Amino acid sequence: MFKFLSSEPLHQPLDAPTPVDETTIKCTTCYMCACRCGIRVHLREGEDGPEVRYIDGNPNHPLNQGVICAKGASGIMKQKSPARLTQPLLRKAGSERGAAEFEAISWERAYDILTTRLAHIRATDPKKFALFTGRDQMQALTGLFARQFGTPNYAAHGGFCSVNMAAGMIYSIGGSFWEFGGPDLERAKVFVMIGTAEDHHSNPMKIAISKFKRDGGRFISINPIRTGYSAIADEWIPIKPGTDGALLMALLHELIRTDTLDHAFLKRFTNAPQLVVLDEGAREGLFAFDPNPEKGPPGDGRNPHNKLVFDKTSGQVLNAYPEGIADGCDPALEGHYTLADGTRVTPAFQLLRERVASCTPEWAAAITGIAAERIVALAQEMGHAALKQAFELPIPWTDAWGKLHPTTQARPLAFHAMRGLAAHSNGFQTVRALAVLMSVLGTIDAPGGFRHKAPYPRHIVPNYRAFNSPEMIQPNTPLNAAPLGFPASPEELAINPDGSPIRIDHAFSWEHPLSAHGLMHNVITNATRGDPYRIDTLMMFMANMAWNSTMNTMAIREMLNRKDDAGEFIIPFVVVCDAFQSETVAFADLVLPDTTYLERHDVMGMLDRPISEFDGPVDSVRVPVVKPLGECKPFQEVLIELAGRLKFPAFTTPEGARKFTGYPDFVVNFQPQPGIGFLMGWRGKNGDEHLRGEPNPKQWEAYEQNNCVFQYHMPKSMHFMRNWNREYLDFAKEKGWRQKNDPVQLAIYSDTLQAFRLAAQGKSAGRQPPEHLRARIDTYFDPLPFWYAPLEDAATDLGSYPLNAVTQRPMAMYHSWDSQNAWLRQIHSHNYLNVNPRTALAAGIADGGWAWVESQWGQVRCMVRHSEAVEPGTVWTWNAIGKADGAWQLAPGSDEARKGFLLNHLISEELPMRGTASGTVSNSDPITGQAGWYDVRVRIRPAAPDEAGETFPQMASMPTVPGVVGKAAQVLRYFAGGKKS
Ligand code: SF4
Predict the structure, then answer these.
(1) How many degrees, rounded to 5, is the angle at CA 692 between CA 691 and CA 698?
(2) Separation between Cα atoms, residue 359 and residue 379, nearest integer Å
(3) Which of 21, 491, 539, 741 lies 20 to 30 Å (CA to CA) from residue 133?
(4) Which distant-in-sequence residues (6+ apart) come within 8 Å of 21 by Cβ?
(5) Is the Cβ–Cβ distance between 641 and 606 less than 8 Å?
(6) Who contacts 286 (Cβ-Cβ below 8 Å, separation ≥6)?
(7) What is the pLDDT of residues 344-357, one digit of tens each?
(8) Ligand 1 pocket check: which of 64, 622, 818 to mutate, most ligand atoms within 8 Å of Cβ?
(9) Which long-range contacts (C-beta less than 8 Å, at least 24 apart) are formed by 954-959?
(10) CA–CA separation, 951 vs 547, rounded Å?
(11) Closest approach atom of ligand 1 to CA 39
C-alpha cells in the first residue's frame, strides 16, 4: 500500500530532521493571501538551481510571529503549479477571444507591440488607455504609471472589494480597519465582529483572538453565517444581509436614550457640539463658523475650521477651538440657539439624537431578524464594556490644543468589520453608523478599542484630490493630479462641464461621487457600450474579469469578444498580465507572463499599504528566493520598462535616458518628496537613518538581512489618541505621512456629504448634478448615518425572490488563486449552496440534492447542503471555487468545473435607472461605487432528476495555451530526509 494511504503517520516529528546542510533558508513575505505574513522558504539545490522544499512562518516577523496557515504552507504548490504561464503570448490572427488560440512571442516583440500602441494613444487621447488591477500590492507603482501616462482610467480592486469600509470610516474617523487600523484585543473586554469572513486579516487576527479568549474576553460575532470566526465566538447573532445599518442605528438609539455616552470625548474630540446652520439656503446644514480666519485654526482650503459651539457655562457662542474647550467651558450637545446675526443653529449631536429617535429596537428587529430584547441587551453590554469596565493607562499625552492628559483613557470595547457591511449599496452609510457608534463610546484610538496604524489617521477629508477636469487630460502629458482621491466637494469631481463622467468607470461622477477606489466592475460594460466613450487598450493585472472578479460573468465574457459592424473588436486591444492560465487569459490579445511572489521583489510600504502595527509603522518586502520560471517577468519590471520606452518624465531624464535600471533600483531611488521613498527602513547613504532620509543603495540588502521587514517603535506617548495627539501629529507631518499637523476631529456629522446634498437641492453655487441624479444625491448624501434597503430591493419582486444570497472566501483559498494548488484543492474542489434546513425542506430540496438558484438576472444549478449555520432567509456559498472547464490547467471534467459553481452568474453589474444614457446605473453604493455583491435576491427549487450531476452553466473547455507548464505537477515527497520522486 502506498504510504499516504496507510494508517501510519506521514511524518514522524521526532525523527531527525533533514540535515541542515541540505537546505538553505531565505526569508520573504507570503502572498498566498493579502495578509503579508513573514515566511521562511527552505530551499534545496535542484537541477536548475535552488528549488522550494518547504515553507514555514517566520518566528521573527512582527505580523504572524511564526504562525502560518494552510495557504501559506502550500505556496510550494503554487510554485509548482501546472497552470504557470512561461512565455508572452499573442492571440492568433483571426481567432476569437475566449478561444485561447495563441502563438508564443518574444518579450522584445511584446514590448514593441505595446510601446507602439501605447505611444500612439498617449500622443493622441491618453484616456483611451485603461489600466485596472486586481488584488495586487503595488498600487503606488501602477497608480504612478497611469498618472505619468496621463490617463484617468486607472483603479485597483477596491471598488469591488471594500471601499465602503475604507471610505465610510476615513470620512468619519480618519482611518479604517485592517491595513489602516483594527481592534486592540490585548486590552479589550468585549469584541464585536460584524460581517467578516473567516480568512480576513487571517493569522494576525487569529493569534489575537486566541489570546483574547484565553484572557477571558467575550467575543460576539454578528453575521448571517456561523462559520470561521463566528463559529468560535462566544455568541453568534445571525442577521439578514444588508440590514447591519438598521442594527447599528438601533444601538445608537439605545445608547443615546439611556445616556450611555462618553460625553467628555464627544465634546472635545468630535464635531458633536459644533453648531449646524438650520436656516434654509446655501449654508443650510453646514457648520456655522467665525468669518474671521484669525479666530481659529487655519482651514485646509476645503472647509472652514473655525467652527462654533454653545458654551453652557457662559451662555455664549464661542469658537470651537480653542475657546470652546478651555477649562470651565461646557459645550452643549443639545438645544437650539441663535447666533448674533440671527442664524438659527443646533449642535450636530442634537441632529443625531433626532435622527435615531425613530430607530427603535422594535423597528430594527423587523428589519434585521434580531429580537428587540437582544438589541437592547447588546447596547447595554457595549455601553458597560466601554464605560463601566473602563480603566486608565499611566501614559501621559498632550492634545493638539496643548492640554496635558496625565493618563490615557481605555475604552475596552473593540469592533472589527469588513466586507459583510461594505459590499452592499447601503454600505457607506452603514459603515458611517458603525463609526459614529464607536465614537459616541469614545473607542477611537483608545486602549481596548479601535486603534490606528501609521500612516493613519488621515485628515477628514484626506488631502488627496483626484483630477477634476477634462482639460487636465492632454497628449503626452502626465496628469497633474492623481487618478484616484478623496473628493470633499462637487468641485473635486471628475466630470465634464455638462456633469457627465470623465472616467470610463464613471468614478468620481455624480453617479458615485466618493468612489475613492474606482469601479472596476463596470469598466468592460461601459467600454463595450462606449459610455462615455470607446477605449483602445484595456490592460488588466491579476484581475480575473472573465470569471469570478466580475458580476454577470457570461455577459462580460461575451462583451470581451463583441465586435462592431465592421467586424472589429469593440474593445480593440486587451492585455492580460498574470502568472497563471486563468479564465481571463483566454480573452487576451496579448498575455504577459508574471512571476510568482517567490520570484520577485515587492514592497508593502508607506506609499501604499504598509503592514504597520498599532505601536508604530512597519513596512516589508519580498525578495526573489528562486529564479523566474521560463521567460516570466515581474509586472513591476514590465511597467518600469514601458515607462522608460514611453519616456515618462518621472522615469527618464530630460535627455531621454532612463533614471532606473529596474524595479529594485526604482524602489530605492524614487522619492515623491525629499527623503521619502517606497521604503522607510535603513535610509541615508550609510543606511543609518529611518523613516526619512536619502536613498540608500544597499537598502534591499538591509531588508534581506532583517527578515524582510522594518519596524519602528514609537514612544508610548504616541501610541494612542493620535487624531489629537500633538506629539504624534507633529511627528507624522515631519515624516511625510501627513501634509499638516491639524487634529482630526471625528465627523459625527459630515458637512462633506451635506455639501453634495446642497448642490443636489440647488441651494449652493457651483457644480450641480444632472436632473436625473438630483434626487439620488439628495437622498443618500445625508450628513447623518441612516439605514435604507439595498437599492436592488426596489428593482426586485421580493415575493418571487425572497432569499438573500451571499458568498464568502474560504479559509483555505484566496479568491480564484488556489484551485490550481495540488494541496489546497484537496480541501475544496467544489462548493455547495448552504441553506438552512427549514428553507431547503420547504422548497423540497434534500441535503446533497441538486437545485436551481434563480435571481431575476440569471440562474445556476448546484448542489445544496443543509446547514443550521445560516439564518433561514439567507443562502450562501464559497467564492470562486467553481472554475471554467480547462482553466487553471485543471483536467477537463474536474470537480471545480462540473460540481463547482459561481454565484456571480446571478448578480448584475447594473440596475435600471431613468435618465442615464444607457437606462442603467452601476449596481453599487450611490456614494462610493462599491459593488453591491451581497444585495442579490434569489429563489431556489429542486432540479429534475435528469438535471442532476453537473452544475449550470457549463462552457467549452479552455485549451492549454502555449508555454504553460501543464500536466499535474510533480508531487514532492516530504518525508524527513526524502528525495523528490
Ligand atoms: S494568512 Fe496564510 S496565506 Fe495569508 S499571508 Fe499569512 S501565511 Fe500567507
Answers:
(1) 85
(2) 13
(3) 491
(4) none
(5) no
(6) 276, 277, 751, 754, 755, 758
(7) 999 999 999 999 99
(8) 64
(9) 954/885, 954/897, 954/898, 955/884, 955/885, 956/885, 957/885, 957/886, 957/892, 957/897, 958/100, 958/581, 958/583, 958/586, 958/884, 958/885, 958/886, 958/887, 959/99, 959/100, 959/101, 959/886
(10) 15
(11) 7
Classify 792 as helix, strand or coil.
helix
Instruction: Count CA atoms closer than 13 A to 632's CA, side-chain side.
Output: 28
- The H or E element that residue 41 is part of is strand 38-46
- How much distance in Å is there from the Cα of 602 to the middle of ligand 1? 16
Pocket of ligand 1 (CB under 6 A): 30, 32-33, 35-37, 64, 68-69, 71-72, 202-203
Q: What are the cell numbers at 829?
A: 474542489
Beta-strand (E) ranges in 374-524?
392-393, 397-398, 404-405, 408-409, 413-417, 450-452
pLDDT band at 432 (very low <50, low <70, confident <90, very high): very high
CA distance 397 to 407: 7
**Could you tell which of 27, 30, 63, 74 is best to mutate to test the pocket of ligand 1, judged by most ligand atoms within 8 Å of the CB?**
30
CA atoms within 13 A on the CB side of 34: 19
Which amino acid, 185?
L
In 3D, which of 866, 872, 716, 854 has the Cα closest to residue 797? 854
Burial class of 232 by CB neighbour count within 10 A (0 to 12, 13 to 18, 19+): middle
Q: For residue 73, which atom of ligand 1 is closest to its CA?
A: 7
Strand partners for 276? 287, 346
Question: How long a stretch of residues is the chain?
Answer: 981
Nearest residue to 728 via CA among 957, 408, 432, 956:
408
For residue 112, the surrounding DSSP H or E stretch is: helix 107-124
**Nearest one of 913, 911, 916 to 790, comparing CA atoms:** 911
CA of 205 relative to ligand 1 center, distance in Å: 11
DSSP H or E segment with residue 116? helix 107-124
Q: What is the pLDDT of residue 4?
A: 46
For the entire predicted model, the pTM comes to: 0.96
Query: Cα-atom radius of gyration of the chain, to the nearest Å?
Result: 28
For ligand 1, the distance from its centroid to the CA atom of residue 38, given in whole angstroms, is: 8
Kindly give the number of the ligand 1 atom that is closest to the alpha carbon of 32: 3
Residue 974 pLDDT exceeds 60? no
- 261 in Cβ contact with 233 (< 8 Å): no
Angle ∠(21,24,29) on CA atoms, nearest 5: 160
Q: In what order do the strands lie in the sheet with 618-622?
A: 602-604, 618-622, 709-711
Spatial contact of 569 and 97, defined as CB atoms under 8 Å apart = yes
Q: Which of 39-53, 164-178, 891-905 has the lowest mean pLDDT?
A: 39-53
Report the distance separating Cα 17 and Cα 12, nearest Å: 9
Q: How far apart are CA 618 and CA 612, in angstroms?
A: 4
- Give the mutation target among 41, 69, 178 for probing the ligand 1 site: most ligand atoms within 8 A of CB: 69
Separation of 970 CA from ligand 1 center, angstroms? 23
Q: Which among 714, 724, 729, 719 has a CA at the least distance from the CA of 403?
A: 724
* Ligand 1 atom nearest to CA at 36: 5
* Location of C-alpha cell 501602477: 142
361 φ/ψ angles, rounded to the nearest 5 degrees: -60, -35
550 neighbors 556 (Cβ within 8 angstroms): yes
Q: If you take atom 6 of ligand 1, which residue's CA is the nearest one?
A: 37
Over residues 466-471, the mean pLDDT reads 88
List the one residue out of 461, 510, 506 whose CA is nearest residue 487: 461
